[in-house]
């Protein structure tokens, strides 16, 4: 019997674990180690953050789902990886620390034959003074929608702002809280949902709503922007994004590294080197992401964390990590199998793998501060990569080490993204975008790096309905309800 251990039960890890169990059956064991008792459909946190959904609508308990699937569930966080075992045993294992199941704080060693790292991001609030509380958590001055609990808190604060805006002029600031953030899409959705709610509440005229972002141009979205086919012509995402902001009366400040946050103030440095302060009454600033801080040790106990992980804490896989200038970046730099180079039985998927470099062009201020988006790994790629990795692991178990590994390069993969711009059955709106490939391939598609036949975008009510239907479909799938495998990632 082989043991597959999946660290992280989010979008990518849950996909990997559930498919691995389905394909391996009872002959082999699949174990999920994840610190939360509940699964969260993170994209719908946006709607929790404006009071249009409750926390219960976007989460469900993991234990019954894993019990139904026959997956061993350990509510714990992984702490360290020991790929060569220890002095008296060659069996690789991880150490975990329980966060629930009545064993909080207890540690355990969990042996594995195959290990999948799907631990997602550490929300690195403390990278910006004042954005965090100094203990790794969200600080007191801003809100976040990155977790369901954050979104509940954000909505409580927002409702007070909407109430106060009935009688006074207030300012809302939404965007990225550091020069090296990703996930601009989530902030984009949140700012337009606030605009939508403020209009519904009749207080929009009393709210100044402003966007602050590390993108060097509007519509970069961490993928270096894109060109979209719209009604027979190609429009740049810059034009697309700027139009949406102008139509809604939302001003913007871009190329910004938020360097410090204080009560009602965000200090920033811009790409041209100038500095300034944005004042606010309410701010949602996305934190930068890092790896979750797993350590790795060799058989003799020596620290080999640097061999398995990049300095940002993400796991090194089969990418080309050679440092080279932007002009020399290639689609082939991006990983295909997500297997770690040193250990054939360790893989990383979703946000947990280390990208070879950003997708957006790297930029620095004259003072040397890097200000550009780091690469997003959104839900669809995270799910597709998780499934491909599970497939490879299952084939390795069934066919042995000569099995062909499954590939899912982000430079050969399309992604669909439906960004909400306001919730409502008849007045909702969402921008539906497809991009192919996610990482541009300028050799294959000279000029814009993408295939225009498969890269398009449109905003409207239909997009909102799609987003709402996807919410129900993905939660249905994650609960492993009948026919779940038919729903694509
Ligand atoms: C507000 C918001 C809105 C978004 N909207 C969209 C959208 O509309 N469309 C879209 O495609 N994408 C969206 N995304 C991105 C999407 O949520 C991510 O791409 C996706 O969740 C990544 O999957 P993942 O499995 O890599 O990480 P996660 O889903 O974050 O899962 C990581 C898991 O690992 C667990 N973990 C952490 N530390 C450890 C540890 N030490 N040991 C074990 N487990 C650990 C975590 O608890 C979590 O369960 C959004 C993100 C945010 C924050």
Instruction: Report the strand count.
Output: 24
Structural class: alpha/beta
Small ligands present: flavin-adenine dinucleotide
Instruction: State the distance separating the first and last CA atoms.
Output: 28 Å
Q: Strands, helices and their partners?
A:
Layout: E1 3-7, H1 11-24, E2 29-34, E3 38-40, H2 45-48, H3 55-58, E4 59-61, H4 62-69, E5 72-82, E6 93-98, E7 107-111, E8 114-117, E9 122-123, H5 148-164, E10 170-176, H6 184-200, E11 207-212, E12 227-230, E13 233-236, H7 237-247, E14 251-253, E15 256-262, E16 265-270, E17 275-279, E18 282-286, E19 289-290, E20 295-296, H8 305-308, E21 346-348, H9 379-399, E22 415-420, E23 430-435, E24 456-460, H10 461-478
Parallel strand pairs: 1-2, 1-8, 2-5, 5-20, 8-21, 10-11, 10-18, 11-14
Antiparallel strand pairs: 3-4, 5-6, 6-7, 9-19, 12-13, 15-16, 16-17, 22-23, 23-24
Helix pairs in contact: 1-9
The structure holds flavin-adenine dinucleotide.
Question: How does this model look, in words?
Answer:
With 489 residues, the chain is an alpha/beta fold. The chain has a domain at 3-123 and 290-399: FAD/NAD(P)-binding domain (3-Layer(bba) Sandwich), CATH 3.50.50. The protein is 24% helix and 24% strand. It is built from ten helices and 24 strands. The strands form seven sheets. Strands 1, 2, 5, 6, 7, 8, 20 and 21 form an eight-stranded mixed β-sheet that branches. A four-stranded parallel β-sheet has the order 14-11-10-18, with helices on one face. The chain has a three-stranded antiparallel β-sheet with strand order 15-16-17, with no helix packed on it. Helix 1 packs parallel to helix 9 (379-399). The model has no long low-confidence stretch (mean pLDDT 96).
